[in-house]
């Protein structure tokens, strides 16, 4: 169908049930569908929201437009989990049904206050002239998952920020509440993180902009402050960032800064880090949301998708998914991301992987892998080679991982021959440097059309979408000589 402004913002009640059921069936039947990642039942999924722990279980919401793979009238869908892996979809949680969120419930956060889950999100309101007014809205969820919105916005639009003012993260420090928001300064049209303070969640003081680094392009989205091993870490998405400030290849990066300390009352985030770094070194991670669980551990979940990028499943009327949950830690001053331990509960009986003899120039790891698996590999130092995933018989198609564990150690992921091409304007390869002459450890998760690669116990992650032809299910190595490696392959269960 042709997506006009009118059709995108039609109320959900004006859509018929049969249309939604057909869209859900179409998404479920897709050969590119995931089985152990959170994915849309139909239509578009984007930013994760309200990631939290409440009432003895984990909660996450995601922005949803269920009627097509387009950005339209956004709502929140609610999921719960006992272990950060097995998620139960509870359906629509926040609808765009008030004056203040009349054109969409946009991103936000959650925290437990007085035995209830307090949600804070951006309501998108448009005037008849289509002028946007962003309102920061509060809502309260009880232990039965009933949500009640506050009557009035918590924070209204402010003069010194343009209409790009969104994605609140609600924080508490000592006896005060703070909110950080993505913003664009009205005068300079530059990206900022806006900061507010309150004692009662009703009266808010504007503390200006958080002092954390140089100018961050023309807009900052999805700011998150989390404490990782007692160190403050700021995660955010700068749009239009000058590549002289920080290196990135995606249309918009998802970045982080490890701080030495933070003083929210002084609007100051101190760091010894010279520039922001990519949170994920792959192709398709954005809008990461992180929080500290009651046990103090820091967890993060991301949107696997990017703004302003079309994906092949758009033609099937669904798009995107969420990453698996990652546990964050700091090792020698660097941020690590690892799969949570309960991911292992999805493994079926494992198959040991070891160095096979070279046959027709290949060392075959698996000749008929499933579409949903985990593969752990340890590759000896002093080698060069290529690992192919989702490949055809002669390896002319597939995800190509080119690596060296010698003096010039590196890893490059190439998806140029992995199936249906997309987003080629932003490159088809991503490369990271590795420590020279050291063993390389890979933990690779493939799920339908998603691949997540954890390098050296989480020092790097590379996430990508790919859309391979049916039958491309081979895993194999190539090299000038026999490669030395060991590992385990597991098929993965559905969640």
Question: If you had to describe this structure to a student in words, what would you say it looks like?
Answer:
The protein is mainly β and 495 residues long. It has two domains: 5-339, 5 Propeller (Tachylectin-2, Chain A), CATH 2.115.10; 343-492, Jelly Rolls, CATH 2.60.120. The chain has helices spanning 5-8, 17-29; strands at 43-54, 57-65, 75-81, 88-94, 105-113, 116-126, 132-141, 147-149, 161-173, 176-185, 191-198, 205-209, 219-228, 231-239, 255-258, 261-263, 268-270, 277-278, 285-292, 298-304, 318-319, 321-322, 326-331, 334-339, 351-354, 363-366, 372-379, 384-391, 399-404, 410-414, 429-433, 440-447, 450-455, 460-465, 474-478, 485-491. Strand 1 (43-54) and strand 2 (57-65) form a beta hairpin. The radius of gyration is 23 Å and the shape is globular. The mean pLDDT is 97.
Q: Compute the separation of the termini in Å.
A: 32 Å
Poorly predicted spans? none
Helix- and strand-based class? mainly beta
Question: What is the annotated CATH architecture of the largest domain?
Answer: 5 Propeller
Strand order of the largest sheet: 25-36-27-32-33-34
Biggest sheet character? 6 strands, antiparallel
- Counting H and I runs of at least 4 residues, what is the number of helices? 2
Can you identify the CATH class of the largest domain? Mainly Beta
**What Rg, in angstroms, do the CA atoms define?**
23 Å
State the CATH topology of the largest domain.
Tachylectin-2, Chain A
Number of strands: 36
Q: How many domain modules?
A: 2
Domain Glycosyl hydrolase family 32 N-terminal: 37-339
GO molecular function, one term: beta-fructofuranosidase activity
EC number: 3.2.1.26
InterPro entries: ConA-like_dom_sf, GH32_Enzymes, Glyco_hydro_32, Glyco_hydro_32_AS, Glyco_hydro_32_C, Glyco_hydro_32_N, Glyco_hydro_beta-prop_sf, Suc6P_hydrolase
């Amino acid at each position: 169908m042709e997506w006009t402004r009118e059709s995108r913002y039609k109320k959900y009640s004006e859509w018929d049930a049969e249309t939604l059921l057909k869209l859900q069936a179409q998404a479920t039947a897709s050969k590119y569908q995931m089985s152990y990642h959170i994915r849309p039942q139909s239509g578009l999924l984007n930013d994760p929201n309200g990631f939290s722990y409440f009432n003895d279980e984990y909660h996450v919401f995601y922005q949803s437009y269920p009627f097509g793979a387009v950005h339209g009238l956004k709502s929140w869908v609610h999921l719960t989990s006992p272990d950060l892996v097995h998620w139960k979809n509870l359906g629509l949680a926040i609808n765009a049904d008030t004056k203040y969120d009349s054109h969409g419930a946009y991103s936000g956060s959650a925290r437990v206050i007085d035995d209830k889950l307090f949600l804070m999100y951006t309501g998108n309101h448009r005037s008849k002239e289509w002028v946007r007014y962003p309102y920061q809205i509060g809502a309260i969820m009880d232990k039965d998952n009933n949500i009640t919105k506050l009557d009035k916005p918590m924070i209204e639009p402010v003069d010194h920020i343009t209409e790009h003012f969104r994605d609140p993260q609600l924080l508490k420090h000592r006896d005060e509440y703070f909110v950080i928001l993505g913003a664009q300064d009205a005068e300079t049209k530059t990206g900022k993180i806006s900061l507010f303070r309150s004692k009662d969640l009703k009266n808010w003081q504007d503390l200006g902009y958080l002092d954390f680094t140089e100018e961050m392009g023309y807009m900052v989205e999805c700011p998150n402050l989390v404490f990782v091993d007692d160190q403050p870490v700021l995660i955010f998405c700068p749009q239009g960032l000058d590549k002289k400030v920080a290196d990135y290849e995606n249309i918009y990066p998802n970045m982080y800064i490890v701080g030495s300390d933070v003083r929210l009352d002084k609007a100051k985030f101190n760091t010894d880090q010279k520039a922001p770094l990519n949170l994920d070194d792959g192709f398709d991670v954005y809008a990461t949301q992180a929080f500290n669980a009651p046990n103090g551990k820091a967890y993060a979940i991301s949107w696997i998708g990017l703004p302003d990028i079309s994906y092949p499943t758009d033609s099937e009327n669904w798009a995107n998914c969420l990453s698996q949950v990652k546990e964050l830690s700091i090792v020698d001053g660097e941020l690590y991301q690892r799969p949570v331990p309960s991911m292992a509960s999805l493994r079926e009986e494992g198959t040991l992987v070891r160095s096979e003899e070279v046959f027709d120039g290949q060392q075959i790891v698996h000749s008929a892998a499933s579409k949903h698996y985990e593969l752990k590999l340890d590759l000896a130092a002093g080698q060069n080679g290529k690992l192919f995933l989702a490949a055809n018989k002669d390896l002319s198609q597939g995800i190509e991982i080119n690596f060296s564990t010698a003096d010039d150690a590196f890893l490059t992921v190439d998806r140029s021959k992995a199936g249906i091409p997309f987003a080629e304007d932003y490159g088809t390869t991503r490369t990271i440097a590795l420590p020279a002459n050291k063993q390389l450890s890979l933990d690779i998760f493939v799920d339908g059309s998603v691949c997540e690669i954890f390098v050296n116990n989480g020092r790097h992650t590379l996430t990508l979408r790919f859309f391979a032809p049916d039958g491309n299910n081979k895993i194999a190595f190539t090299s000038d000589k026999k490669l030395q490696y060991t590992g385990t392959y597991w098929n993965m269960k559905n969640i």
